[in-house]
Amino acid sequence: MYSIITNQKNWIESLAIDQVKALSNLPFVTNVVGLPDLHPGKTPVGVSVLCDNYIYPHIIGNDIGCGMGFFDTNIKFKKFVMEKWVSRLNNIKELCDIEYETDYDSPILDLGTIGGGNHFVEFQIIEKVFLKDEFQNLIKNRDDVFVLVHSGSRGYGQKIFSEFSEPKGFSADSFSAKEYLLSHDDALFWAEKNREIVADKLINYLGFSQKAEKIIDCQHNYIEKSENIYIHRKGAVSNTNGYVIIPGSRGSLTYIVKPAGDFEKTAYSLSHGAGRKWARSLCKGKISDKYNRDSIRQTDLKSRVVCHNTELLYKEAPEVYKNIGVIMDILKENELIEIVATLRPLITYKG
Questions:
Q1: Which of 260, 300, 340, 344 has an alpha carbon 20 to 30 Å from 23's alpha carbon atom?
Q2: Spatial distance between the Cα atoms of 188 and 219, rounded to a whole number of angstroms
Q3: Given the residues 150, 220, 232, 272, the one annotated as active site
């Protein structure tokens, strides 16, 4: 059984739909739900897959624990100076070059880094509050600068995946499944810790002594057990663990939402972002005429982008992603969320 939550305004590539169907035909799969941000990958991205006492590590892939950490920097917006911060961030070649003392004995060798691809760090401010009471329960200081970190378990997740990438999967009662899930859970812990360290490193690097205060952390590549059902989320976040943060592209707003409605309808999951429209190999050819060296580093929201990889700037441009407003509308139409607040980007940093 499978279903796809969408509407006529939302374009979903046929390959992604075919991939959802293929997942639904796997043994022990009881339900597959494609979310509005669905797009194709090695396995489809933007799906929640329910399996009866069975796990498929290949659905999750190598970036186990990839997700979004949302933090209050405890820096007042009045202390934000665009040119100063951009200049400072431009001096970073790699996040691993920033000195940061930690006592952690971590299996992530490059702890405190975000990686490439669609991973990013974004400094943001509150744009609009929709649910005042919910917002005040969640955020203490509306006038602060906030930071959103998108990263995962780095090379550690790849190491685990390389050991357990059997496409046939494993019975949940098997030795292999138990060993995988132990390593998987360890990767979840370190992925979340990695996001915390990235936030702290950048706050310190920008000249501030305070630590980041975690508000939300949403993992979107992982397996969660519920009785004998194993929920595989690939590019999807849980709708049963409280507030969720859903970003769009670097040129759009980010949404804080409260899950609502029929959790079972979406296989206990929500969208993790806007979802890609184009494969990375197509991006530069489609939009190279629109930008020059400087304009590709700015957005329509007057935010700035810091990235030393020009190819990556095109591969992750706002145009290559779906409209986050449409994604939100679909979730609202289906009564799956309530929007608490939106955030506007100031600076997006990509490693």
A1: 260
A2: 8
A3: 272
pTM reported for the whole predicted model: 0.97
Residues 6+ apart with CB under 8 A from 37: 45, 46, 235, 271, 272, 273, 274, 275, 322, 327
Token pair, residue 233, equals 């989320």
Reading the block at residue 89, the tokens are 């961030």
Question: Are 262 and 243 in contact, with CB atoms under 8 Å apart?
Answer: no
Write b or e for each residue in 326-342: b if 16 or more Cβ atoms lie within 10 A of its Cβ, otherwise e.
Answer: bbbebbeebebbebbbb
Q: How far is CA 71 from the centre of its chain?
A: 14
272 as an active site residue: the answer is: yes
Spatial contact of 246 and 259, defined as CB atoms under 8 Å apart: no
Q: What is the pLDDT of residues 285-329, one digit of tens each?
A: 888 888 888 899 999 999 999 999 989 999 999 999 999 999 999
